[in-house]
């Protein structure tokens, strides 16, 4: 027959093994779907600023997404196009990963076919079928962070394509397949 002392000793040992031995337990993580997603951005060409929660309580907020579509419009001709939520989530996760509290600079969001053709005529680094044309890409500049640091953090997330443009001081992120380029 098991003595009371043996039983209590066994229960105490089991509690220690389970991590309940008086040590504070970590709080369970909130499900990713319930995390509030917020972006704090400055468009470097228009000077506009947006600080917006676009996802909350497990759902995307249509009004906020409409504001993001307008904010990330083609700054050359003003055309607006829906921005894919996956690229917004990529940007959000990247800011969290880097611990960014300052505004992130937006170099380019959506790009119209006309603007893309204009840029391609003047630069070899612009893709003919750029994901900017589909609202699936954003070029960013992060104050106080080197391009290499931002690009490496984005690559670690593996949420889409990552281009490093050190000379122009920006990082391209997109929600296409994972791939990397640039120096």
Automatic annotation (TrEMBL):
Protein name (record): Murein endopeptidase K
Pathway terms, separated by semicolons: Cell wall biogenesis; cell wall polysaccharide biosynthesis
Cofactor: Zn(2+)
Annotated keywords: Cell wall biogenesis/degradation, Hydrolase, Metal-binding, Metalloprotease, Protease, Signal, Zinc
Record GO terms (molecular function): metal ion binding; metallopeptidase activity
Domain of life: Bacteria
InterPro entries in UniProt: MepK, TAT_signal, TAT_signal_bac_arc, Zn_M74/Hedgehog-like
NCBIfam families linked to this entry: TAT_signal_seq
Similarity comment: family membership: Belongs to the peptidase M15 family.
A GO biological-process term: cell wall organization
Pfam families attached to this UniProt entry: Peptidase_M15_2
Gene3D superfamilies, per database record: 3.30.1380.10
């Amino acid at each position: 027959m098991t003595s009371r002392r043996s039983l209590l000793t066994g229960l105490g040992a089991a509690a220690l093994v389970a991590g309940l031995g008086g040590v504070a337990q970590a709080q369970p993580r909130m499900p990713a779907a319930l995390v509030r997603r917020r972006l704090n951005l400055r468009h470097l060409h228009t000077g506009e600023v947006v600080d917006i929660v676009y996802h909350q309580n497990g759902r995307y907020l249509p009004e906020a997404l409409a504001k993001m579509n307008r904010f990330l419009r083609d700054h050359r001709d003003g055309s607006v196009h829906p921005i894919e939520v996956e690229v917004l989530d990529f940007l959000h996760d990247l800011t969290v990963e880097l611990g960014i509290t300052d505004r992130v600079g937006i170099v380019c969001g959506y790009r119209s076919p006309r603007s893309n053709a204009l840029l391609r005529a003047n630069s070899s680094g612009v893709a003919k079928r750029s994901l900017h044309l589909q609202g699936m890409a954003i070029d960013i500049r992060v104050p106080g962070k080197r391009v290499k640091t931002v690009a490496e953090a984005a690559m670690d997330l593996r949420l889409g394509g990552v281009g490093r443009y050190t000379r122009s001081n920006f990082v391209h992120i997109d929600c296409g397949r994972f791939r990397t380029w640039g120096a």
